[in-house]
Amino acid sequence: MDRLQIYRKLVFSFFCLLFYKQEVNAQMNYSDVMLNIGDANYGIFDGEASYDEEKALNHIRRERFYLILPSVMREAKVDMWIHVIRPWSWGGTDPLRYEFGSKSGVFIFTDRGDENIEKAVFQGEVQDPSAYDIIGERYKYRSQQDYEFMDWSEENPGESYKSELDFRFEGIGEFIAERNPKRIAVNYMETLSFSEGSETFTMALTDGISYTDYIQLSKSLGDKYAKRMVSAEHLILDYLSRRVAAEVVLYGSLRAQGGKTRTFDNIVPGVTTLGDIGGASVINKDGNERNSDNYLIQRGDLIISWQGNAYVLRKGEKDLPWYVRKFWDDDKKIRDILRRNIKVGLTGGETLKLIASKLEDAGFVYTDYQEYNKYINRPKKTQVHIDMHAEGKGILAPRISPMGPKWHWDAKIRLFHTFAVEYMTYMYIPEWGRANNFKGQHLSGFFHDGGVVTGRGMEIPYPDRSNKIQIIQ
Amino acid sequence: MNKVQILLIFLSILLPKNLHGQFEEPKASPELMKLIREQKFDVILPSVMRDNEIDMWIHVKRKPDFFDFEFGDKPGVYIFTDRGGNRIERAVLGGQIDRDLYDILAPESSLGKFVSERNPKHIALNYTERSSSFKTISLNDYKKTLKTLGKKYSKRVVPSDRLAADYLAGRVIAEIALFGRLLMISTEIIEREFNKIIPGKTRLSDISGNVFVRDYNGNEENNTDYIVQPGDLIGILHDANMMDFSEHNGGIGYVLRKGETNLPPEVKRIWEHALITRNIFRKNITAGATGVEQLEILIDKLEEAGYVYIDKDQYDKTADPEKTQVHIDFHAMGRIISQEEAPRISPTGWGKDLKIPLYHTFTFEYMIHMPVPEFGKGKHLYICIHDGVIVTERGVEFPAAPIQGIRIIR
To answer: How far apart are alpha carbons B359 and A459 in whole angstroms?
Structure first.
């Protein structure tokens, strides 16, 4: 092997190891308490962020306890909230594991009339104990299959270890009686269903407690307080759907560097293929989509990609054809309508109604369907469909959309609501219709950017999809 | 595998984790800058022009100036006109501009006609009658502009400093996200700087940022060659920036003395005061009041809670020796031309008379001077807290984690 080859090999090995090292670091950062973080579709916590996730989560938790917890409990007329996460489930699908910073425990929040809610945790391990006022008995549960139990058996010969059911709610009855709550919200479902709650269909958003736990908790509470239990389902959803400023920071800053506008340089009509440029499709001059890698880009083609668009001028054309210009002008108008009409305090459903009417006033056709409706008797009008669902916590509500269950629409839009600015537009183009025997050829756009609702309306936290059209001569 | 390859493996393992990660300041990408400019024009501009009763704002720009961040860096005569409705008309005469951001591009020679067609009642121009960083127009341009406007409209010209200060102080959500991100970065940098300290060896000047130590008599060493000693309470302030959007943040460390394993009682006590006063500030700041009005409220609340408010960052020997003294300088952060010329909850600065806008990004900068009678008459401990905050409809929020405690340096 000559010296050059050795040098090349060494450089190659170094870079392989460098990337391996970064990967290993990422895995080592993956805190056990927050395991499954990526699976939960939390969105902003993926184990790969450039900031310290544990610190960010701890901070958000405290801010939420301080700013949000009192109002959601008082608005729900609940003076005690008990949330049980079973230790053997490892909190895998519990929707509040980030909010509470734990994968197991009995969490009790009591409104004792002070400015803040009293926060207690029993039989649990929490990531940030200082976020709680009372840390009760620590996690006693031991799996009878693990080494801890084997150690215990060795140290206590002849004794049989108590079942977790013997102590999970130990002392809770007295704790509750001392506080004498009128309404105790507990994490079981009453009127909602699994699929309604979660964006991923994997998180049991409002359901957590098992029948056994319910019985054990009821026993511990005694008749007097067991009768005061109510479902926490709406309280949980309300707590999840509200945001503090620190969450907006994560939501906005993570994508702030995204949204770069793509340019399509060096395209030679009739020579360059879609495969050459990659990641784009074409709508040809007759309105037909082409996406094969072998397709030769032609004059009159509209090149569409997520990061940017381009139009290849036809012979004699000096500017964009009317329909391309109108499509993006319409988009600006639609965004302006959204910006001015999404407000704190309205429900998702009320907002949808309002936006639909503003769209109609502005000359659009609002459609409940996520496809072009060729039977609408106003073919010259651009059709708009909206599905602006919540983002950031795997929960879709409040949802400004005709889709989803009723409670999604009934949920109120709160300060700093983070959501997808998701809408579709369908514009009929007569020239394309004529070229295709009037089969309803249209230009459609799918938009999915981010939005935050402030006291001033809808604002944009990070650069959205580029609406720049590059003109290719 | 040969020896060199083995060495390389070790070297790669020793590389710092997240090589491009935590301390990297965000880049001002064209897309992000366009978003911020557009959002500020849409969301902030109409309200600040109406609040200031200005229906035309002329900003003459011949070279890059502080408003590059908001307007773009090209020279030209920037004119914003309130013609009613939801938005402000944006025009540039005699410049090159982003056509997506501005409605009108016209030659500078049309200035007189442009203004008279719009017939504004109050025209703000980028000059001031006092010494100010907002005075960005040259004398020549000032005279030329007034001449072009003619007698009728030149009489309607007023300084734009107040309007410009309000515009800079208005934050859109993309700026709030940026502010929080920068706070996280400076917090990480401050931690890194604390980790460098070796008592008895490290000089304050070896540490990056604004680094200071005060003794029990209030004498300060600030970025000097003073060598860090056991018993020192060290403050570090450090900034993080994206273009001209900047913030700075603070941390505090205590160097353990021989035999100490934890913070001594007096240091724990001063930290308790930091938390109590933080809560007072958090509960009593709202958008809408001026800085000076807000300061009065905070002084009352501090005094109700048993503190002595001091208007200088200096221990007052004449005050009640039992009481802890607190100084406040809640200056703006983010886009500020200077701390003095931005909304400020503080006894000093032109900006103290400006209104605190909703979503104002500023600092909880307060200094605690706590008497320690057991050390002798007049002896006191000093800490400076410096956390980034934002005022929302709910009060004060921390967009990123504030200082969590006084860190121990062994």
So the answer is: 13
